Amino acid sequence: MTTPEVEALFAADTLAARVDEMAGEIARAMPGSFTLVGVLTGAFVFTADLLRALDREGAAPKVEFMRLASYGTGTTSAGEVQVLSGLSGRFQGEGVVIVDDIQDTGRTLMVARRILADLGAGPILTCALLDKPERREVDFQADLIGFTIPDVFVVGYGIDWAERFRHLPYIGKVAVG
Ligand code: IMP
Ligand code: MG
Description:
Helices cover 24% and strands 32% of the residues. By secondary structure, the protein is of the alpha/beta class. It has a domain at 13-25 and 34-67 and 93-154: Rossmann fold (3-Layer(aba) Sandwich), CATH 3.40.50.
């Protein structure tokens, strides 16, 4: 297997500063009690950092995770996202912030939002650390984005390439050479 090079795009301190800003925006948008719902696996680092940044903002969110598998390679729509593991279901009247690593085709966050709405959650805020607007295939836009990037494949800060590179403290671009 070719070993790809990783070219840094966002340093750890750049990510931390933006996560702090996003936590401030979330805390202002969600004054009541709310739950952070992280989308596994890619968003686990971001969710954990956001949770602690929210504490610094004086918020006290609960946290849950959901696992979704996206098969968004074709041109058909949301039916391609499969729910692999679920949630506690206790969301009636509960504010929820859905946290994903990357908004790509848009299917994952669109489906996650629908699932939480069906469970009675509200208000619902969707957020992604990275957004690749060029890749969008459905009419969906997350409420809060960390950074907008072009159509490049990224890894690190929880995000993988074939389960590798999640451990990197920064986000980089994969260049298969
Ligand atoms: P979508 O918006 O439903 O297409 O799903 C986005 C998901 O695709 C993200 O949560 C990631 O798991 C994955 N993904 C998209 N772009 C990348 C990338 O550049 N590196 C690693 N995973 C990616
Ligand atoms: Mg993902």
